[in-house]
Amino acid sequence: MGIRVGQITPFPFKRPNLSITRPLIGSCPLLGALATASAFPGAWSRRLRGTGPAAPAGHEAAPQAPPGPGPCRPARCRCSSSTWAGRCSTSWTSGCGPRASPGRRPAKMNGQMWTGNELESVITLVVSSCVPGFCFKWKLVAVMNDIITTMFNKKFMEELFKPQELYSKKALRTVYDRLAHASIMRLNQASMDKLYDLMTMAFKYQVLLCPRPKDILLVTFNHLDAIKDFIRDSPNILNQVDETFRQLIDMYSCLSAGEFQLIRQTLLIFFQDMHIRVSIFLKDKVQNSNGRFVLPISGPVPWGTEVPGLIRMFNCNGDEVKRIEFTNGGNYISPQREGSFDLYGDRVLKLGTNMYSVSRPVETHMSGASKSLASHTKENAAPNPLAKEELNFLARLMGGLEIKKPNGSEPGFRLNLFTTDEEEEYAALTRPEELSYKVINIQATQDQQQNEELARIMGEFEVTDQPRQSTSKGDDLLAMMDEL
Amino acid sequence: MYRKERSVPLKSSSSALYNNLSVLPLRDKQLTYFAAVHGSTVSLASASADGLSVSHRQLQAKEGGLAVSASIVTQASWCVLPSRVLLVLTSQKGIQMYESDGSIMVYWHALDVLEPPPAQAVFARGIAAASGRFICVGTSSGLVLVFDIPSKGTNITLSEVLEEHRDSITDIASEVGENLDGAADLVTADDSGALCVWTSKEEFSLLTKISAFGWTCSSVKLWNGVIAAGYGNGQIRLYEATSGALRATVSAHARWIYALDLAPLTGKLLSGAEDSYVQIWKLSRSPDTRDIEIEHCHSECVTDTQLCGARFCDPEGNAFAATGYDLSEIVRYGQV
Asked: Cys-Cys with B138: which of A13, A225, A244, B126 at CB 3.0–4.6 Å?
């Protein structure tokens, strides 16, 4: 069969017409999707996904929403933020809204410790950054649709699926910045840095912990499943995502375990020596204070692996002559079933799903919709004492929200992942130099001279079916992304 | 019983690559050399027996003259021949051989990347000294390159290419126990899990092939006619080298095995895996039936570390060392 590991691997051949090797994380198209998807993973789904099967986006339950307390949908945002928060918390705890996550007060922002809340706040802010007269849904859907449309743009995906080397960190960051700014949502540098760090650490965790190398595909599928859920009302975008899904299945489903391991090892080289501490990981005890992830030595072994502890010996005729058991030190159990690698299906694996859900989906094995519905109900019924605190925090964030009108009549908004603008500025100032990026607003032509690598990558995003006057490939990429 | 001893710090952390630790004990100098790969560099450390005095050296995977960009190193290993010791590096670009202390590069072999199949990954991986004067290196296309090493000087030549594997070579092992005439001298393993057993007289010839069963064989060892192979499903399998018959299966680890090592004087086997465990085993042959036997001796957890390299530090297996992904040190254990 024609699928070769090099199509995705990191140890790929050198492109003949390139003078400088370009390591591309996107070489794994998986990664393209995942880089972004994992950045926004759970948080968005949490805000957007209803709790029950029928409940649509959290904040604005549809008229035919299932029984239960009414939708918490402030028709407009004139109410003060605290009032709004109060109202919402009421309805949330009574069970209609999304599962509220435990409120985590932001830890000190001057270090590199991020709280999970911030990412979540982005979403909440998207939802709640309502200019009077603007419907939540419109805003929310617009932002989500913009970003997802950009991400799954056909040309963009074609580029990601081309065989290429691992992206450099700088290149990935640039692409990531552009994607994040593909909508009217605006993040300044400090917030963007924070989001990027969170994304990279979340994805490092997923790649490191995935039980078998092949399961990185399930992680990506979890990302895509969540993305599809955001846009299930937009058939056009849904088609785009499904098309990417099919491409992934075509390209990767036939790879061997060894080839997947090669991909995984290459991704791990990208993430090597990144030890940024993430508060949700610290809190959940999946990350140590030194930034290293905790490796469990109990629980189910990967699919296809036997629980360690048995030696079997055979004689020269192949007959088993002896069995010895031994204790290996861990406390493992057998896996129950393998996740689905199809377009639709139960992935079983929880890595890559919502990392902010209250009761983190534990590795339980349930089957059938009824059971999962039951579990949701149970989660929702349990009031979360920290929810109010979280909402207050969000309310403060909203207070710090600055509304810009970029051009024309369309209002934009700026997101600040810090509690106050001062903190944000402070974080930007104190961020170590090597972690800083000067990327977001790129003058492509100038940049091309400054950074050949980036320029070339941009060049490869060129839209070919729309002839342009511009002679700079870098201009094209930026223009293309602007147009999307 | 083994007890943890002082760790040896590395200048950079180890990458997640199979068999990513090489150990060279220098008994006369009371020193031990360690080598582990980090991306496109190799961290070398020489440590005294108590681990108190350590010196470092970093090797870059420079391409022979045409250094355009750093390529990722896939493995670094010392090859001990009767006449000399060489440090061999494999990378995406080719194979480099250094003097044992890493000071001088004595040989560079570029991988033929003129016409790779489109989008094919190209690299070398799997290093072993064999039959007294050869160094064997595997490639991503499944070839095993056999280099003839003179007792001194740089006149290293590619003497033979073994073409049996269809998948990327993962590891190569040569006999570390008694070398009997006509017995197996070399085992090569690949990504699909297939093993080839070779014997060498004038040339290498295929003795037997052990077929794959769906999991990558990431590490392999050969001791007194017994093949020990570690797989991606955490299993260790023992085979009779001459016939290829399966003699034992061990459900040893919960995750992918990354390293095996054998202490030639005692038959101790060591396995290290992504489940953070190093397990110590003992191989023997039943005096009556000549059946191969294996027992479990010891279990050691390197907390929160996906192990990528583990080795005995002496031929008796009285001490071992291990390193893992993202870990900037070599943890050492000694027998008490």
From this structure: B126
